[in-house]
Write a structure and sequence with these properties.
This protein is α/β, with parallel strands linked by helices. The protein has 22 helices and 15 strands. It has a six-stranded mixed beta sheet with strand order 3-4-14-9-10-13, sandwiched between helices. It has a five-stranded parallel beta sheet with strand order 8-5-6-7-15, sandwiched between helices. Strands 1-2 form a two-stranded antiparallel sheet.
Length: about 500
């Protein structure tokens, strides 16, 4: 079956997977969606004996149908290799009555590695397939993890440059150091005076600035995106949910066909959308539990049917979730309309115009598989401490949100189905917040002193990615106002 892609807003259709990956965002500002979600054609029992790489091929071949078997297997082999500190790539840790899917064993110790390790290979393969003769400029906004993972993936990849924008005071110290010390002559990082939504909106504006794109094209550049809006990010994320189910089966934790639930801490919605795709492919997933922090725009949406970003923006201890514009939610909205691009376009225009929209009862019905809740700062810290004290398992501030929301779900519904919790980052990326949670106030302590303390207390090894930045020189120091993002891109590409 040949899968092609169309914009969620109707402006483009019949686009191949490689073209969609190269383009990133559709010309009309919409997101690319497959014309149908294919069904898994491998029995779960067979999947249970496969490696992560083999599972990746079985999932990705169904979506990326214009890639040859050799092209796709080469991309997978280059992505999921010794960059990961475990052969399993995404191990499952059984903790109490839940299973934590550890997505932080890649080179930048966050779940973004799972997709951003392969995206550069998918993109450079796509460029060859489509005879692209321009230098590809990856333009990306980050709430903390995407930036580093994308730069690590694209560093010194021929024919590419990458420019990352991040909110100056909206990431953890480790996240910031990871970005600012990034090597690679083709990498550039810019701190903006604003929040993540400002950065994301700014990047989208540049993508939609036809005049600017023509100007750059004349100079030999072509934009693409490594953000979660790129379908080349979303498809690899589907893989780890299929792999998690297969692992549960292999470990005899479930029987074939048994339904599991999934909990995902999310801000931009892409990570939980990937689980929804896996469900649509035939994976036995029951509830998709959407965990928010104090920026609980998604929780409110699933409870009321109204998406409203007109609210105070909160800086929290789980910064990758500090988002009020959940860009990937548009894909779910599109699906819930029955793939009616005009209806989706109208809702997105309403969001842009007044900052909110309300879906129909029929659309809400189509999203009945989702259950939303949130965890406050205090609840998050209490959950990190509870799980560490009672079960000896150390988790970061994003996984803490997911774990706390899972407890709320069980209490509210009584549903005791086996549950996979997406563990999205190493606790070492957020040492200050994690140590405060488990050991009390840590005022005035230096970041790496805290990291050493945490390692001693938890008897866990400090990840290589953290040790590397302890003494690494700062290579990036650019800053700009939100209004200055375009000028900044021009200046970078001049050099």
């Amino acid at each position: 079956m040949n899968i092609v892609y169309q914009s969620t807003r109707g402006g483009q259709s019949g686009i191949t997977a490689s073209q969609a990956i190269l383009q990133g965002l559709a010309e009309d500002g919409g997101l690319f969606m497959p014309n149908e979600i294919p069904k898994l054609d491998v029995e779960p029992e067979k999947l249970s004996s496969m490696t992560y790489q083999e599972t990746a091929y079985e999932v990705m071949k169904l979506f990326l149908t214009d890639y040859t078997e050799e092209e796709l297997k080469t991309c997978i082999a280059r992505a999921y290799d010794s960059k990961f500190d475990t052969e399993e790539i995404a191990p499952l840790a059984k903790v109490g009555d839940a299973y934590y899917l550890e997505l932080f064993h890649g080179s930048t110790i966050a779940f973004k590695d799972m997709a951003l390790s392969i995206l550069p290979h998918l993109m450079t393969t796509a460029a060859k397939k489509n005879h692209v003769d321009k230098e590809i400029v990856i333009l990306t906004a980050t709430s903390g993890d995407t930036g580093k993972a994308a730069m690590a993936g694209f560093a010194d990849v021929p024919g590419t440059r990458i420019i990352v924008f991040y909110p100056k005071d909206g990431v953890s110290r480790i996240q910031e150091l990871q970005m600012r010390t990034q090597k690679g002559d083709n990498t550039c990082v810019v701190a903006i005076h604003g929040n993540f939504d400002d950065a994301q909106t700014g990047v989208k504006k540049l993508f939609n600035d036809r005049e600017f794109k023509e100007e750059l094209a004349a100079k030999g550049f072509q934009f693409s995106s490594a953000n979660s809006i790129n379908i080349g990010r979303l498809v690899p994320q589907v893989v780890y949910y299929v792999y998690a189910y297969a692992k549960l089966l292999a470990n005899e934790e479930i029987s074939a066909g048994e339904t599991i639930n999934v909990v995902v801490p999310t801000g931009n919605f892409g990570n939980i959308l990937a689980a929804y795709f896996a469900k649509k492919m035939g994976l036995p997933i029951g509830k998709l539990i959407c965990a928010s922090n104090d920026n609980k725009v998604l929780y409110d949406f699933f409870r009321t049917g109204t998406y409203d970003r007109n609210r105070e923006f909160m800086l929290t201890s789980s910064p990758s979730m500090d988002i009020l514009i959940s860009s990937n939610l548009e894909r779910l909205i599109y699906l819930s309309t029955g793939c009616d691009a005009e209806a989706n376009k109208a809702l997105m225009a309403e969001l842009s115009r007044k900052g909110s929209y309300t879906v129909t009862p029929k659309m809400r019905e189509a999203m009945a598989d989702f259950w939303g809740n949130f965890a406050s700062q205090e609840e998050n810290a209490a959950e990190i401490k509870r799980v560490f004290t009672d079960m000896g398992y150390l988790m970061d501030t994003h996984t803490g949100v997911a774990s706390a929301v899972y407890q709320k779900y069980v209490k509210e519904t009584g549903d005791k189905a086996k549950t996979v919790i997406a563990s999205t980052a190493s606790p070492y990326k957020f040492s200050h917040s994690v140590m405060e949670a488990i050991a009390g106030p840590q005022e005035g302590k230096e970041e790496f002193a805290l990291i050493d303390e945490m390692s001693a207390l938890s008897r866990t090894d400090i990840p290589k990615a953290v040790e590397e930045i302890r003494t690494a020189p700062i290579r990036h120091s650019r800053e700009c106002e939100v209004e200055g993002m375009k000028a900044e891109v021009m200046d970078i590409l001049k050099g």
